[in-house]
Amino acid sequence: MSREGAGLFAAFRVLGRFSGHVPHVLRYHGRHREFYLAAAVGRSVHTYNVSTRRPGNTLPQDITCLAADRMLIFASYDNILHAFARNKEVVHTYEGHKARIHLLQPFGDHVISVDVDNVLIVWNIQSEEEYLQIDFDKATFAVSALLHPSTYLNKILLGSEQGTLQLWNIRSNKLLYSFPGWGLAVTTLEQAPAVDVVAVGLVSGHIIVHNIKFDETLMKFQQDWGPITAISFRTADGHPVMAAGSPVGHIALWDLEEKKLMCQMQDAHSTAIAGMTFVPGEPLLITNGADNALRVWIFDGPGGTGRVLRSRMGHSAPPTKIRYHGLNGEQILSAGQDGTLQSFSTVHEKFNKSLGRGSINKKKSKKKGLKLDTMALPPITAFASEVAHQSDWDGIVACHQGYITCTTWNYQKTSMGAHKLRPEEFSKHKPIDIYATAVDITSCGNFAVIGMSTGQVDVYNMQSGIHRGRYGKER
What we know:
By secondary structure, the chain is mainly beta. It folds into two domains: 289 residues, Methylamine Dehydrogenase, Chain H (7 Propeller); 153 residues, Methylamine Dehydrogenase, Chain H, CATH 2.130.10. It has one helix and 40 strands.
């Protein structure tokens, strides 16, 4: 079957997909007086406000780069650039690159794109014509970051893998100034709230707060988690705070007045921080990553650290099993290779639930954190659910890859349940080649039936977790 789908089975709706490795963009709608978040999800652009999502039009291939201005959202795949209007219609197409586009920057009546062959093209947005093309030598200046400094008319700042920076006048096609840099590749550029000041993220984990008018370094910070993947400045409440993302999913918050680390938000994502934006005038930070999660963090507590205000998240690895929960067809339970069990609503994604990750010891898992958790159970390979009595006791039973113990889950509490079901003869030791292969729950919700790799079938009471019988003989 082709990707577009056959006539019999046509794609209707995507469930549980919210984010990828492409950084999100934030745009302000003047008439609505609202901020909108645009995120690339496969071949589509999804636009969010505070409470809703609007799926956009679909492009032929997965989106690799995203940008937005006051009116349009720009999305590229391979060497083609498109502009979306009203969050769904493709109104402009720009063709001229010979290689994949990896950087985008809206620029007044123009949009700038840079491809991996180091070709920069300035496009006229309305006419779709090429206004200017600049070819850079990869050996001396491989463009790795792009920024339009605030109030700098017709000028753009380029960062390179060689570590140097260049300030160009696009209108006159002139190189105005070359910054020697710091001898390390530039990974990201971000405008500071102050005019003439730019934050430069380096591959070493250093962040340089630099005045580009006088070519003077104002501050220098370093984090130990690898290259800087994203930078954002907080402008709310007069708090001079800078946030920096990392490849391991941690976020560092720096106090710019004290010039020191304020706090760390570890495991904000399970993969690299792809995009990070403070909402102007609000104590809110939006992040996204390749772990298929979008999160809004609010900074309203002591110590300066953030907590999750709202989120949209799905599996960070492919699902292993899905099935409907209940008889109304409104909830789908899904187990994934990431070890989580999740519920996706067919009505609206605000009803989605995450039941969490299986663990041998939940308390120890919470203490160790996501990355260092040695108590995590293998991914779920099969599960069964029953709504009868789910308000009274656990209503889901699951077996795990190569594991003899089965777990119960509570849909109402959205968490792992009270019981771990395994044959009594293995209560004190774990067998090597015996594991659970299949599970089911009786329609009354009272008993769990578990099939083992030996051919035997065990029955457990769901309320108490007590073993109630066995069928079959060992092979």
